[in-house]
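[job 0412] stage=complex_fold ligand=KG4 status=START
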Amino acid sequence: MLVLGIETSCDETGIALYDTERGLLAEALHSQIAVHREYGGVVPELASRDHIRKTLPLVEDVLQRAAVDKSQLDAVAYTSGPGLVGALMVGAAIGRAMAYALNIPALGVHHMEGHLLAPMLEDNPPAFPFIALLVSGGHTQLVDVEGIGRYTLLGESVDDAAGEAFDKAAKMLELPYPGGPHIAKLAEGGNPERFDFPRPMVRQGGLNFSFSGLKTAVLNAVNSCKDADGVVAPNDAVDIAASFQAAVVDTLMLKCRRALKESGRKQLIIAGGVSANTALRESLEAMVAKLHSKLYYARPAFCTDNGAMIAFAGAQRLAAGQCDDLTISAKARWPMDQLPPIAEVN
Ligand code: KG4
Ligand code: ZN
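[job 0412] stage=complex_fold status=DONE, emitting structure tokens
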């Protein structure tokens, strides 16, 4: 089954072609970072307008590169939530309309399910069941995954998401948006032990996260390092970045370890933008090795938002016979445990 995937939930236009027999045929991504950078974050209306400009040209581009005519498509999958409603509406309207014109089925895909299944696009993919840590700009969740659509939420952030914490810490250090990769780069040369930032909610039981206290601690550190002109010296900034990253990584690692131990699962997958973080991957690799367990993640380009994960997640459900009616569906909020199950991945 040949599926066109369309991702427009936030600030990237991601388009891909996935075939259940042949795998990923082509994918294209347009990032809106340059559009939003001067505002320090995503401006929803600008995001929607840019998706309108980019979606159809990118669809043409992937079809051409895969040497596929649109008449050969078997189905269309588009992100229908959660995300920015205006941005989602662009991909949903284009995807649904294309499917209608071609008289093929269409399916609205859950963005976080797309992230969750992205490691399955790689060689040696994980097999169900596993524990998933979803860490993006909007979500921090630990999920027990028994199969597609068979999700039990084990814990989540009670305030900021991990990616949001990276972005806010980066702003305090006057680094560009989105901050995660910039903090990671800066942290490389820093001392992660210089600032004793809190590891929130690790002592109490449970699998929830909280990152707002850490944010305040970083702000205090930044202020205490400012000189008379309000400037933080570069050597202080690298240590703040390294200490902040270490606090986030430790917190995520400790909760993942607890989830693996409590569930008895032997596989951990990490997904979402923050799963591209090298320090996080290294810390989790060391932890799972001690538990005789295995860690799985996607290549960095498939950790952040992309069309391939939506084409892939959509293809699994469409191949199992699921599809939506003619309604163009865009949902700002959409709990993942409301998704219907399917049996097994192909
Ligand atoms: O999954 P994603 O692309 O979009 C959402 O669904 O939110 O995640 C974006 C988030 C941003 O907060 C960004 O700063 C963070 O992922 N991020 C990183 C890294 N790359 C992206 N955070 C830490 N280290 C990275 N290397
Ligand atoms: Zn995302």
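The beta strands are 2-7, 12-19, 23-31, 75-81, 106-110, 130-135, 140-147, 150-156, 267-271, 294-296.
[job 0412] exit 0
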